[in-house]
Amino acid sequence: MEGAGPVETGEDPLAPYRGRIMYGLGIAAVVCLVPFSINAFVQGNPALGGGILLAVIILGVDAFAVYLKKAPPIPLILMLFPITAGSEISLKVQGFFGALWCYPTILLFTFALSRRMANASSILLLLIVSALVYHYIGLAYTIRFFVTLTLTIVLANIILSIIVDLHRRLLDQAMVDPLTGVFNRRHMERTLRDAIERKRRSSASASLLLIDVDHFKRINDRFGHATGDSVLKGIASLVSKRARKLDLLFRIGGEEFILLLPDAQEEAAAVVAEQLRASVAESPLVEGQQITVSIGVSELQGGESLDSWMKHADDALYSAKKAGRNRVVCGGPLRPEQDASLLKAESGA
Description:
Layout: H1 18-42, H2 46-67, H3 80-94, H4 102-112, H5 115-136, H6 139-175, H7 185-202, E1 206-213, H8 216-223, H9 225-242, E2 248-253, E3 256-262, H10 266-282, E4 293-299, H11 306-322, E5 328-330, H12 336-348
Parallel strand pairs: 4-5
Antiparallel strand pairs: 1-3, 1-4, 2-3
């Protein structure tokens, strides 16, 4: 089931760090590019000096905005204009050296723009400056420039792909239980708080099922921890297959799981819980041994906190255990048959 497994992660892991990148680039631009701008003016080439100065201003203004904790006001894509103009003037005056500025520009685009925008800008820069190199210098230099800058773009994309993959793996480790492959407690708390906020804003219903494996310690003691781990993985798989795509399954510790059912009221959640309970009881998870679960059901109430919601589910689970296990109990008022089961269990204790 898609909903019970890890969620898709974003393909732009550098987005949270773009401010830091912009700030560092702004400082580097002032330190490294201002001297080139001054030198161009001194040598009587105001067009080149002005182009370099314009690039410095764009980076500097954006960096200063980041320093003030504001969004950069000038889109970096505009860097294409001063860089292209500066490259043309430099190629005309200084020869092939003017094309060398394209290499750090490719890295600038790669790490400061979204991936799609960076590739579009890099390819556009490659084509324009290659045409300029051919016009001012010749075919031999154009071929070398085109190939090396293309390799730079490819290498930058490879590095970015590795960063994306590492980012995804770190997110999985932060959100996913390594044994069962379902979400962990840390991700559960954030997700349940989102459901509470959704309830506050739009009165959207949500229910959770607190699932506990009955007599799990006996299973470990009798069959070993490897079998116990296999039971947990099997139950996680069964719940994932039976639940809806939008439901989310979490392992919250030991033999306990929580299944979040968005847009589900208690009555519907209880039906799902009973189906899951029966499915586990009928499944041959351990040869020669029936495995069962007890489930507490709790619907989120208006104005309810996370602790309160969890406590109602926990109380319902406790009632299910006390009534004999292998059953479903809702967090609201007990139905007559549930109440009778509890009284019978207590009298027999």
